[in-house]
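User: Sequence in, structure out. Go.
Assistant: Echoing your sequence, followed by the structure tokens.
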Amino acid sequence: MSKRYIRKDALQEIRKLSAFDYLKNYQPEMLIKNGRTDYYHREHDSLHFSNGKWYWWSQGKGGTSALDYLVTVEGFDFKDACNYLLDLMKISAPVITYNYPTQAKPFELPAKDTNNDLIIRYLCNKRKIDKDIVDYFISVNQIYQDKQFKNAVFVGYNGEKPAYAFKRSIFKNYKLDHAGSNKSFSFSFTNPNSSILHVFEAAIDMLSYMTILKLDHQDFKQYNYLSLAGTSNKIASKTEADIPIALKSFLKRNNNIKAIIFHLDNDEVGIGATSKIIKVLSKKYRCIDDHPKESKDVNEELVSIRI
């Protein structure tokens, strides 16, 4: 490819094209939808696109523009990538879905109800979770009852600010991340004095395991805990080794972690996801698969103990 001189105004125009819009317009078959705003690359499972940005988790590299994507992922020479994009955009002007700059809407939690009576009854009576544990997470504003639908809401924080919320219906099988949630800050508990992290499929499993520890006369606050908020099916279906954003981000924020114990579901999906995650992390951490052996998940195990 000829290396034409790239004018400054042309370079500015090229840099406005996001990697997501480049693929959406010119290689749409490479984008696989992975949630409300997240996509991953067909040929690189750990290469994700979200909110105009891209990040290649297995390589630890990321960016925004199509130009950076072509150089980093596709291996283009810088000038070749510029000329390639200029030619594409002349032949077929791209439809832009992500504009620079964007003003992100502040994350807002669902409105709180006047009390938490229904979700306490659900978590303690039906799910058999210890009331002291439920009360603790209510007291630190990580669990509450939403006003409109009476869902149980499980909150994750970025420092002092709420950044994530998982909504679980107490009446039917409805569960979903709240709009605008950042999975990097999934529902969790941090103990900076512990080097052990326990990982779960869902918040209710996490609370159930804490209850099992308490039944065994152990302090439930002695470890670190993290809910992956239902990512196992996506991990298990991938061919390229990857780890979920919630776990990767938690480990980045907590460099005291030395050992990770996985308690994902006792099924093909949960066991498969655990195996794939351990394959990536075992080089740096001591990893243990401790999924339930007789029950489907940790909560079912707890219910069977407390019948």
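User: And one key feature?
Assistant: The CA atoms of residues 71 and 78 lie 6 Å apart.
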